[in-house]
Design goal:
Layout: H1 5-25, H2 40-56, H3 66-98, H4 105-130, H5 139-179, H6 187-211, H7 216-233, H8 235-250, E1 258-260, E2 265-271, E3 275-280, E4 285-289, H9 290-293, E5 299-300, E6 307-315, H10 321-335, E7 348-354, E8 359-367, H11 372-393, H12 410-422
Antiparallel strand pairs: 1-2, 1-5, 2-3, 3-4, 6-8, 7-8
Helix pairs in contact: 1-2, 3-4, 4-5, 5-6, 10-11
Length: 423
């Protein structure tokens, strides 16, 4: 005897009449309808007829056999397992092989493609599992299922392209770091985000219009009207976006550099589409809109070729010429042998002023590094060595002092006595 899905539904109809028989035989059931009017077989058959009629709109129940359903359900389970296995194969096995290569891009490719490949394998397994019962499906269901599986595959490809933007970013960074060029850490993230947004938009339009037959043109027209309305209320956002592009191309600063604006002094932590974030020397995080920072004066402290050390050393007036010459020699020795000095820019040390309370020595030296905190450590060592060497040589530092001379005027005193005598 041939068992079809329709015969199984009829058997299910006969079995489903049992609850209705029990319902009719229950003496404690509240009377809603006359119990003699309840015919369990007719009620179950009526419900099953409606179910079969509804299912017949989508399936040819005479042609679907039970093994078709079991095969399809089993194919779903196999597709899930195959998807997980393919991801493991790409992310673990192929990644292990790629790690042996000198080109590190192969490692990143394996890590980026693992999830999209698993989705593509699942879509293929789902479609293959439905092939035996395709002939029993209606045209509408067949077309819908074909488009659904194709859309899943297209989503997998789009997802792979979306994730491969990270690989493109790494390749571009490596290229410009080796050969130089105008792109830097600011422009590359902006291009990465823009490329990803473009990929999402193109993928949605392609899948919607060419696979799912959605009228994307009407949606785009509506989106254009909405975008025009939004643009009037988002002028600052648009200005910030284009200002970020100008900052990226002009490159007045980079991430990690210390800059001074009209109001703030800090290190650049992030440059986004809308704003730039600074970490001040006090540790506070400042967010400045790009249209403001693009139209303000910026002092890039990190790009100075050297950090200048400038000091005025005051010696007491009882310093002899010999001690002054010794002090100058000690200072020239200290500042002429540090590791960050360039021979073409030697330190400048002169006895330049005789102030009202001290003899002044001007010291200027250049520390050729942009590491400010390393410069502070070096400066501290120089000051300590100056104190030690001057103390050992008996050279004293001066501090602001005033000397007041008191002198008695004998003429004024005698005049006073004369006045007293006249009195």
């Amino acid at each position: 005897m041939k068992i079809s899905v329709k015969n199984m539904l009829f058997a299910l109809s006969a079995a489903s009449a049992l609850p209705f028989r029990m319902l009719a035989a229950d003496e404690n059931l509240p009377i809603i309808l006359p119990k003699e009017s309840i015919n369990p077989e007719k009620l179950a058959a009526s419900l099953m007829d409606k179910l079969i009629a509804r299912a017949s709109e989508f399936f040819d129940l005479q042609r679907i056999e039970p093994w078709h359903l079991f095969f399809f359900l089993g194919s779903i389970i196999v597709a899930v397992l195959a998807a997980r296995a393919s991801r493991w194969l790409v992310e673990v096995k192929l990644h292990k092989i790629a790690s042996l290569s000198k080109n590190k891009s192969y490692d990143l490719v394996c890590l980026l493609l693992g999830k999209p490949v698993s989705l593509l394998v699942f879509a293929a397994g789902l479609y293959i599992g439905a092939i035996p019962m395709m002939s029993a499906l209606s045209n509408h269901v067949t077309i819908f299922f074909d488009k659904f599986c194709l859309a899943l595959a297209a989503c997998a490809v789009s997802w792979a392209l979306y994730r491969m933007v990270d690989l493109l970013e790494q390749v571009v960074k490596q290229f410009f770091s080796e050969h130089g060029g105008g792109l830097n850490e600011m422009l590359i993230p902006i291009l990465r985000k823009s490329l990803r947004i473009m990929l999402v938009i193109v993928s949605v339009i392609f899948i919607g219009q060419n696979i799912l037959d959605i009228n994307v043109t009407a949606l785009l027209a509506g989106a254009g009207v909405v975008g025009l309305a939004i643009s009037f209320g988002a002028q600052n956002t648009v200005a910030n976006f284009f200002s970020s592009l100008m900052i990226a191309m002009d490159q007045p600063f980079k991430i990690g550099e210390r800059i001074i604006t009209d109001k703030y002094d800090g290190f650049v932590e992030n440059i986004g589409f809308r704003s730039t974030k600074l970490r001040t020397l006090g540790g506070n995080l400042i967010t400045i809109p790009n249209n403001i920072i693009a139209n303000t004066s910026i002092e890039n402290v990190s790009r100075r070729p050297a950090i200048i050390f400038s000091a005025d050393l005051a010696l007491t007036y009882d310093t002899s010429p010999e001690k002054m010459r010794e002090a100058l020699a000690i200072l020239k020795e200290i500042f002429s042998r540090h590791e960050f000095m360039k021979k073409e820019i030697p330190p400048r040390i002169y006895f330049d002023k005789m102030k009202d309370w001290s003899l002044n020595i001007s010291v200027k030296a250049w520390y050729h590094s942009d590491d400010y905190w390393a410069f502070m450590d070096w400066q501290e060592k120089q000051y300590l060595e100056i104190m030690e060497r001057f103390s050992a040589a008996g050279i004293d530092f001066a501090f602001p002092t005033n000397t007041t001379y008191l002198h008695r005027n004998p003429l004024k005193d005698s005049g006073s006595e004369a006045v007293i005598q006249r009195k």
